[in-house]
Predict the structure of carbonic anhydrase.
Amino acid sequence: MTVVQEFLKANENYAASFHKGDLPMPPARKVAILTCMDARIDPARALGLEEGDAHVVRNAGGRASDDAIRSLIISEQLLGTGTVVVIHHTDCGMLTFSNEDLRQKLQGEFHTSADDIDFLPFKDLEQSVREDIATLKNSPFIPDTISISGFIYDVHSGKLLPVS
Amino acid sequence: MTVVQEFLKANENYAASFHKGDLPMPPARKVAILTCMDARIDPARALGLEEGDAHVVRNAGGRASDDAIRSLIISEQLLGTGTVVVIHHTDCGMLTFSNEDLRQKLQGEFHTSADDIDFLPFKDLEQSVREDIATLKNSPFIPDTISISGFIYDVHSGKLLPVS
């Protein structure tokens, strides 16, 4: 069975006992989470989310990229969220490479320059959270009324640690 | 209690019984999911994912944005995934507005032009999945060896429906 076939099989079971078909579009808990795509993070289990509770934006690193800001503007302006929680995590892949490393690998494999792509790696975990919070706060479209806080998720303990 | 305090409380319970501290960084099932930030979607429950199984990239619409491609390149090139599953969903917020609508709202509220932001809304759900698959396949950094398929998640039934 391919992984896609496995997903369809698992989804049959999920749908068979699904009873949340009447949830509204706006998140019930008025919050958006911005975190990493890392496979070891399950935001719902780790934070106690039920379907319908929160927007979850994920990318490599949990970075406040232009696209994350696009998503958060939609979340806040059209769907009423007022809190953003930025969560980076220990042992993140983004700590393990530089733009130069990855660009060189891509050039070698695809014979095409990736020099115009910033892959947004970082060297300091707490600093990356602070930087991303600052980026969000500096967006002209994210007003001061939006509460923004930052955390590091420890993939070894399952614990969420505040970044001040 | 604020929603952040609720998350910390829920996380205490999660961490107290956490026993998955030794998972490796690369996703065990070698798959990356690209889906919408919508609060009603819980990819782990809906697809049968455990911590460590899959990269999960999420943004407004589950679009194949430049940032999603950045994340997928890292997923594939540095962390060994070979399958991408694109999942859009019924009743998506992206079906309910146009760029012009949102830009006008932002201009009115913040007195700053958002004309250079494409919010990536769409009018046809199946078509948006097909477009995003095509965008990924056309990336010079996503080779033909990566398997890409598309689905629509029905938020009313919990069911995953293939898009061909």
Remarks:
- The first helix of chain A runs from residue 3 to 16.
- Chain A has five helices and five strands.
